[in-house]
Structures are given as C-alpha cells and as structure tokens.
TrEMBL record:
Residue ranges of the region described as Disordered: 98-117
Species of origin: Streptomyces sp. 900105245
Pfam families linked to this entry: STAS_2 (PF13466)
Highest taxon of source: Bacteria
Name under which the protein is recorded: STAS domain-containing protein
Amino acid sequence: MDARTPAVLVLPGPVTRDAVPGLCDDVRALMELGGTGVVVCDVGGLGPPGLGIVDLLARLELAARRAGGRIRLRDPDPALPALLDLLGLRFQVEGQAEEGEPALGVEEAVETRDPAV
C-alpha cells in the first residue's frame, strides 16, 4: 500500500456489540499506518441496514476522527445512505462526488454562442 491508497477494512456481517471496540482499534491502527487520512470501510457484507450498523459506523467515524482522519464507505446497501441521512449523519461513499465537487466524468463547457448569465 502506498501513501495515496487508503487502507481498507472489510466489515463482515453481522457485527456483534462485543466486536465494535476491536474494529475501532483496527481503524485507529490503519489510520496510523496508511498516512492518507482515510480508511475505506467495505460494508457490503453487513446486510440490511439498521440502528446497530448506524451505531457501528458512528463509532468507527469517531475513532477515525480522533486519529485525525475519516472513514469512507464502500459498497453500502442502497438504503444505508438514506438511513444515515435521515439520522443526520454524513459519510463519504466511495464513487460519489464530495460536496461542492462536480460528479466524476462531468466537465463544464461553454458554448461560444451562449449568452452570458
């Protein structure tokens, strides 16, 4: 892994409450080793979203922030971002443009015949 490639933590499902502190330790360790300020959490194996998953992700994000970084979600269930948004939690999702940035592959172009706005 080079300095530009974020570390990946695969979260197998289901995750028990007892496993959460160990996963937080894993995030902190990956933050120290990675040097990118981001740990990608592969959440594809967690199953359908619920409050247990929200709690897990909030704790992992808190651990990452305390270590000076963030987590980014990979392969979330389609309902997970909606649930997180409903609860007021914002997470980066791999492949989505960050706030204020254009979507990937979108280029702004100006036609010379277009009137100025």
